[in-house]
Hints:
single chain; alpha/beta; 4-stranded parallel β-sheet; 12 helices; globular; binds N-carbamoyl-L-aspartate
Amino acid sequence: MDQSEWSLAELDALVGKTLEIEDHPADYRHRLRHHVMATLFLEPSTRTQLSFQTAMLRLGGQYISVNDPQTSSLAKGESLMDTVRVVGGYADTLVLRHPCEGAARVASCYVPPGCAVINAGDGGHLHPTQTLTDLATLMRVKGRLSGLTIGLCGDLKYGRTVHSLIKTLARYPNNRFVLIAPVGLGLPANLIGALNAQNVLITETTSLSEVIGELDVLYMTRLQVERFESTAAVADALPNDWFLTTETLGRGRADLCVMHPLPRVDEIDPAVDADPRATYFQQASMGVYARMALLLRLLEGERAMPVALPPASGNEAPCPNPRCITHQQPALPHTYRPNTESGDSHVCFFCDQQQLSD
Ligand code: NCD
C-alpha cells in the first residue's frame, strides 16, 4: 500500500473513517472476526507493530507475528520472496517492516492471491501508514489537509515518515513546505526533483527559530542514526538550530500543531509536552484508528491480488541505490518503470530510485 496509488477521494474516505472509528470504536468490535493478520517486523518497532496488533484485536480479528529475524527462517538464509509466499498463505494480510528500501513492493509481488501487503516502513524509503495517521491527526486538529504551511524538521534524508508525508500532502491544494534540516540531511534530490516538477512550493533552511513563526504545522523527526554512513555525520548534525525547546516554541503561532511520529530522542525538549500545541501523543493514539480503517478497507473490500512484476529485459543495470532490496536479494530482477512523478525518466520498480542512465 502506497498513498500514491490512492486517489485523494480514497484518502479522504480513509481519513474520515479513521475519525469515525475514533468517535465510535464499539461499532467496529466484530467487523474482522475470522480474519488473520501476519506482522513481520525485521526492524525495531514499538508503535507501528503494537498499533497494528491492537487494531486487529479491536476489530475482532487475530494476528500471528515474527519480530526477530533470528527466530525465523530468514536466519537460515531463506529469501524474502519465499518467506512472504509462505507467510502470506497463513494470513489475510501481511504487514511488513524491513530495513531495505523497496522490500514491501517485493512482498506485494510474491504473496499468494488473497493476501494484502501493508508497508510498515521499508528502510529510509516510505512509511505510508504513518502518513495516514498523520493526515487523520491533522484533520482532527486543524480541520483541513490543504492551505497549510508545513515545516518538516530534522533528518529529512533518511526519515521515511517525512518522505511519505510530503509526497501525500503535496497532492492537496495550496500546501507550502518549509524544510528545516541539518547540513547534509536534507530531502533526497530525487524527491525534491519530483516535487519541483509538480510546482510544489518549498523553501529550505537550517534554522528552526527563524521560520517557526510562519508555520501552521511543525513535523519534527529524530536523526535516523541507524542509517547513517558514519558516526562523524551524527556529530555534524547535532549543533544546528533544529531542536524544539520551549523558547523556540514561544515564537510559534498560538494555533501551531506540533507533530512527531515518535520515538523522540533529544529533538523535542520534554518541557514542550505540557504545551497544548504538542500533538504527538494524540498522534500516536490515532495510529490505532488509522490502522483499523485501513484493515477494514483492505479486508472487507475486493480480494487482494499480487502486483505483476514488469518483464525484465535481462540486461538492466543494478539499481543505483545501495540500500535497495535488490542488493540484499540477488535473485530479484533489476527492473525499472517510467517515473510518473517527473517527466521521462525511469525509476527502480522496487525502491523508486532514478535509473542512472536517464
Ligand atoms: C518512525 C519510523 O519507524 O520510521 N516511527 C514510527 O513508526 N512511528 C520514526 C522513527 O523511527 O524515527
